[in-house]
Amino acid sequence: MNTPDRTPVCSPKSLPEEVRIESARTAVEINPANRPYLRPAAAMIGAQSSTKELIAALATKYWRSGGVHLGVRFLDTEDTALRNRILVHMNAWSSGANVKFGLSLGREAEVRIARTPGDGYWSYLGTDILHIPIDQPTMNLDSFSMDTDEREYRRVVRHETGHTLGFPHEHLRREIVGRIHPDKAIRYFRDRSGWSEKTTRAQVLTPLEETALVATPTDTQSIMCYQLPGYIMRDGRAVPGGLDINDQDHHFVRNLYPARLVGSQ
């Protein structure tokens, strides 16, 4: 009998419902482009509170376009080599972009990394990390150590850092979700990762609203895209997913957070 593959799969964290409106307000204050466009009819439906909840649900969580410089604190290791190795992979996003993650020894670090065994791989999305209590992690790298394969550092650390930069899962675009056979996907993720039906529906089968996406072509080889085997797809065509930041990922982050020109203010 085959042993199920229990390789951890990224499960991005969401804020508690009671702080989502506040977090959307924070996101819009940091970057006004995070405010979603609401069709006039939709904006007029229901009370003002309903409109706020709709904005909270659809707001993106990108940082200010001038760049992203965030402090990183490690909650469960003082191993210098391990911390530096993780930071190198986080900063792989900085090529040609104004993105920098730096080690912070103070409690004020925006990004806080834990390696809690059994808790999987996850990160909160973009500016949502500002609403996490300062003694709690904003990212988990399940059991990562100096013995972890370099390919996993590229696949996992860079992927979770993408979420920290505000990037949602690419495989949740409507055109990909529409190709997935729900029952087969539920069985696949149950066997592969031990996910419940509810988790699979949330992480794989519920498409993002178009207003929550930057208008870029779907990239099935993005580091932010799951690998999906052909046998769970209605058309039999696999989604290759990404094992590292690809050219389109780099192009996107450079456009979103462009590097400052020498001599510019």
From TrEMBL:
InterPro entries: MetalloPept_cat_dom_sf (IPR024079), Peptidase_M12A (IPR001506). GO terms for biological process: proteolysis. One of its GO terms (molecular function) is metalloendopeptidase activity. It comes from the Bacteria. Coiled coil: none annotated. Residues 79-227 form the Peptidase M12A domain. This is Peptidase M12.
